[in-house]
Amino acid sequence: MSSQSIFLTVDTVVFCKSEKQTLLLLIQRKNEPYKEQWALPGGFVEDYEDLETAALRELKEETGVALTSCEQLYAFGKPGRDPRRRTVSIAHVGFVKNKITPRAADDAGDARWFGIDKLPDLAFDHKEIINLAISRFLPDHSQ
């Protein structure tokens, strides 16, 4: 029998749709790996949490944006997706009706809205996560 050391994380894709464009909330990482690169809000699941609770907690801790719910998107677990250790992330998707001004905190150095057509370079496999979220939740915007 093998001993596994797999860590569980959550990431949250948060969209805000306006008449002119669809926005996506990103954080700028304060720590390595990928220090100062843009990423989805997220982090490690605590032993006592279910997945949605962890996703909503990480979102609020890093951006100040509070959602009441989000929907599970997909599990991302390719070896090497996180250079620190073997990590599986359960991605979630949420929507806000009005553009809330985010406040970076915790391990986020900055938090901003970006137009989904003008995203910066992203850490980890977050571009892949965002593309899947767009294809499933915003089919008119799929690339």
UniProtKB/TrEMBL annotation:
Annotated coiled-coil positions are none
InterPro entries linked = Nudix_hydrolase, NUDIX_hydrolase-like_dom_sf, NUDIX_hydrolase_CS, NUDIX_hydrolase_dom
Q: Which UniProt keywords apply?
A: Hydrolase
Q: CDD domains, alphabetically?
A: NUDIX_NadM_like (cd18873)
Question: Which Gene3D superfamilies does the annotation name?
Answer: Nucleoside Triphosphate Pyrophosphohydrolase (3.90.79.10)
Q: For this protein, what is any one GO molecular function term?
A: hydrolase activity
The segment(s) forming the Nudix hydrolase domain are 5-138
| Membership in a protein family | Belongs to the Nudix hydrolase family.
User: Which PANTHER family does its entry note?
Assistant: ADP-RIBOSE PYROPHOSPHATASE, DIHYDRONEOPTERIN TRIPHOSPHATE DIPHOSPHATASE
Protein name as it appears in the record:
NUDIX hydrolase
